[in-house]
Amino acid sequence: WDSNPRSPMAAGPKPASFDHSDTPAYTQVVSQTKNSMKTLPLCLSAIRRFIPNSRIIVVDGYSEDGTIEYAKNMGCEVYLDNGTRGTARQKCIEKVTTDVFAFIDSDVVIHKTWLKEMMGWLEKLGPKVGAVTGIPDIYPLSTPRRYQKFLQEFSGVTSLTSPVKIQSLHTGSCLIRKKAVKGIKFPRWLQHREDTFLARYILGRGYECWRVPVKFKHYTGGTWASIFAESSANSRLLNILTSKQLLRGTIRSVPSSLKMALYFHEPRIIIWNMLRQLYTVDGFINWQKYLYVKR
After folding, report:
1. Which of 60, 74, 80, 139 lies at a CB distance of 3.0 to 4.6 Å from 33, suitable for a disulfide?
2. How many angstroms separate the most distant Cα atoms in the chain?
3. How far apart are CA 23 and CA 219, in angstroms?
4. Using CA atoms, how far apart are residues 122 and 160, in angstroms rounded to an integer?
5. Angle at which helices 230-237 and 268-285 cross, to 10°
């Protein structure tokens, strides 16, 4: 499959219908979209190719770029939601009917053995595991995401070779046991960190979350404000981030960014780190500004 989001694959499919009658219990896939045509063709083409019998449930935020029509042509069930990522995740989960389901976001592209590997780890780790997530191979579509790619590589996440227990999830690509999220209610204002809210709920029900060595491609963009300020605001409201933690993180980020800049021979990392911290502080202090931001 083509890894270029501007490839001919993005031109649009011929109308098609798919038979879900023999869909295995673990191949219900839920995805969130909002004007996602830059990456959606790659995402759905990979799912249709590598999980051919999947039932795909799409929750869309009233897209205006052809996303809805494209998803329907690819045989997806499309539901509309004009809220936040929190309300969209809520609707996604409510539509699932199987014991295990997959979250695959519209900017994620899976590979041929993704489902087999993820299911293998879920079964191997045992019934107390409520969710497993993989390792994002970031294809940045904006400067802030390029900075995040450096952060990820510097942290060692990309070199993971064995599963590790975690406190959060990358909900763009994960498998979840339905019973682990039974009764969950996402706050309507939750625009960012819905993955952390989800993981906390799973952990609170006595299950575990694990990161496993299964990679996926993540074509991701966004601005400094939409990534870091909104995340900081929602982290404050979820009591994930306190003022002391913010101050400590800001101080520690200075020597860390210097080390990263030297390691990657990329001096712009120092400037990017400053921007990240500025927007993180702004989101924390002016959190009201980032409530109910539309997707």
Report:
1. 60
2. 56
3. 28
4. 17
5. 40
